[in-house]
Amino acid sequence: MKELGRGNAASAALAIIFVIAATACGVEVTGQPQPQSSALRLEPRQTDDQGRTLPFRTNFKHRWNSSNNGSTYEPCTSVTNVVQSKLGFIPNSARDSATVDGQTARGCRWRYPDSAWTISQAVGNSPSLSSYKALNSTAIDWLADIVIDGRPVGVATDPSAGCTTYVQSGGAGVVTVASYIRLPTIPTSQICGRAISLTAATISQIPR
Q1: Does 191 reside within a domain?
Q2: CA distance 169 to 171
Q3: Which of 11, 23, 31, 163 could serve as a FRET partner for 58 with CA atoms 20 to 30 Å apart?
Q4: Is the pTM of the predicted complex or chain greater than 0.85?
Q5: Do residues 24 and 92 share a domain?
Q6: In terms of C-beta distances under 8 Å and separation of at least 24 residues, what long-range contacts does 39-43 make, across chains too?
Q7: Do 73 and 147 sit in the same domain of this protein?
Q8: How many independent structural domains does the chain possess?
Q9: Residue 69 has pLDDT above 60, yes or no
Q10: HEC secondary structure over the chain
Q11: 68 and 24 in one domain?
């Protein structure tokens, strides 16, 4: 019998060990083990938990992370083109709220034809509306809660002519922020009206 070289002998021994181990587990294996495919490496996720594709391509591998995984709700896929048209957004104007990988808030922002307006909706882990209020009691002024579709919704204003709504979803809060950045400013009720409208248009999709 022809003598094996050191390299070939080592390869043969490795293959034998691999087959023995697999046989012990009741699995028939042939050939030698191969390196792990590069396809199994972590790639940026492009769909929500329902399999709906994001309206943009993200390069952030940790867009979904331990700071925003308390709810399966995804604003970017829930605000459809129909909803955008109904609320007066520029069609297909959704952009990722995240500017860096691993950002706490996961969501989107949309544009209006009037550039004085901005609006966004994002998910961030939070145990309750009361906890969120306590954490944000100095920067914004909380108004009386409202009820949409039988669910309590926190509403707050801030000095920069912005209005925020908050809806609890599992272990996270869904926060919608509308702002008007032109001077002179307009009544707060009009600004809050836009934040509340987006909240109402999506609340049926937000898990409790």
Answers
A1: yes
A2: 6
A3: 163
A4: no
A5: no
A6: none
A7: yes
A8: 2
A9: yes
A10: CCCCCHHHHHHHHHHHHHHHHHHHCCCCCCCCCCCCCHHHCCCCCCECCCCCECCCCCCCCCCCCCCCCCCCCCHHHHCCHHHHHHHCCCCCCCEECCCCCCCCCEEEEEECCCCCEEEEEEEEECCCHHHHHHHCCCCCEECCCEEECCEEEEEEEECCCEEEEEEEECCEEEEEEEEECCCCCCCHHHHHHHHHHHHHHHHHHCCC
A11: no
d(CA 169, CA 129): 10
Domain that holds residue 28: 6-33
pLDDT of residue 12 exceeding 80? no
What φ, ψ does residue 170 adopt, rounded to 5°? 60, -125
Going by their DSSP bridges, the two strands 162-169 and 172-180 should be labelled as: antiparallel
pLDDT of residue 42: 77
Whole-number pLDDT of residue 9: 41
Q: What's the average model confidence in pLDDT over 74-90?
A: 95
Task: Give pLDDT tens digits for 130-164.
Answer: 999 999 999 899 999 999 999 999 999 999 899 99
Structure tokens, 23: 């046989």
Residue 93 to residue 110: CA distance in whole angstroms: 5
Average pLDDT, integer, range 58-76: 97
137 and 181: one domain? Answer: yes
d(CA 158, CA 141) in angstroms, rounded, equals: 6
Please name the residues in contact with 204: beta carbons below 8 A apart, sequence gap of 6 or more: 149
